[in-house]
Amino acid sequence: MRSVCETEHLYNLAKDIRRNIFKMAYNAGGGHIAPAFSTVEILTALYFGGVMNYDARNPLAENRDRFILSKGHASAALYAILARAGFFEEEDLFNYCQDGSCLRTPEYA
What's the whole-model pTM score? Predict the structure, then answer.
């Protein structure tokens, strides 16, 4: 069972992730906020609650867990989680769906 302190940390982390998703959508001039928000707790628990085995410094490690997001309209949530986990800089989030961004999805291409 998780301690209150651990649970509170995950709760606060989820709030920060939601703020980033909102900022991403605002900077992009729109986005799918509700689908992204609906996955935040699950992704936060998986990536920061000790469930997923990953190493942001070695993302292709053979023994890593793989996560497949089939809900494409929630991609902003996954991007926000991956940035917080250290896969890329959080500043890159705020170029979401912008020309030249590594976070530009095909629907905006």
Answer: 0.85
Q: In angstroms, rounded to a whole number, what is the distance separating the alpha carbons of residues 108 and 49?
A: 33
- Kindly report the CA angle at 66 between 56 and 96, in degrees rounded to 5? 60
Q: Which of 66, 77, 64, 65 is nearest to 103 (CA)?
A: 77
**Residue 98 corresponds to which amino acid?**
Q
**What whole-number distance in Å separates Cα of residue 79 and Cα of residue 83?**
6
Does position 99 have pLDDT exceeding 80, yes or no?
no
Q: Which residues contact 6 (CB under 8 A, 6 or more apart)?
A: 49
Alpha-helical segments (H) within the chain: 4-28, 33-37, 40-48, 75-85
CA dihedral 52, 71, 95, 99 (to 10 degrees): 130
